[in-house]
Amino acid sequence: MLDREKNIIICEGVNACEALIKRNIAAVGTLTGALGTPSKEALKPLEEKKRVIYVWPDNDDVGVQHMERISQKLHMLGAEDIRVIRWYGAPRKADAANYKGTKKAILQLIKEAKKWEPSLEPRHRGIMAINPSSFSLQLRLTNDERPSVPRIE
After folding, report:
1. How many Cβ atoms sit within 10 Å of the Cβ of residue 19?
2. Which whole-number Å values give the CA distances from 117 to 17, 39, 75, 146, in the listed order?
3. pLDDT for 114-126, tens place per residue?
4. For a Cys-Cys bond, which of 20, 59, 99, 119 suits 129, CB 3.0-4.6 Å?
């Protein structure tokens, strides 16, 4: 069971947030759009209760980068336990509002969430900062999904 006082999920937007709340799961949604980042003042109340903070990024590069910036700010504010929810097999751009699984299935995603670790490397949809000692993952991306890499000539 997810303790509402000790755990919260941050997702992108009202629809994703409402989808979780309808399942009686504590959630907040960002209102900045994926290109923006909530202010420290907006995030501070989430960190103050020393709860576990879960981030559920949209399944696209912009959504992952959005949650990465939020995680970084929360970390700077003193959040000690930030975890990343991964919905493997999610359609591109999908979020919590698109998830059709049961509440039990969502709680399993939460249970499997990996600890977020700060990093200087940019993130994309295939990668979000997780503790490598607690997780291994093989990515198989099609050519159109691979992040572009600048060529040095």
Report:
1. 21
2. 24, 20, 9, 23
3. 999 987 665 555 5
4. 119
Residue (of 17, 93, 15) closest to 58 by Cα position: 93
Task: Determine the pLDDT at residue 148.
Answer: 54
21 phi and psi angles, rounded to 5 deg: -60, -40
> What is the spatial distance between Cα 61 and Cα 35, in angstroms, rounded to a whole number?
11
Angle at 52 (CA atoms; ends 91, 96), nearest 5 degrees: 20
Cα–Cα nearest to 25, from 80, 94, 96, 114: 96
- On the CB side of 31, CA atoms within 13 Å amount to 5
d(CA 150, CA 55): 29
How far is 66 from 107, CA to CA, in rounded Å?
23
Residue 82, strand partner residues: 53
Q: Classify burial at 45, counting beta carbons within 10 Å of its beta carbon; exposed 0-12, middle 13-18, buried 19 or more.
A: exposed
pLDDT at site 99: 95
Q: What is the mean pLDDT of the chain?
A: 81
pTM: 0.75
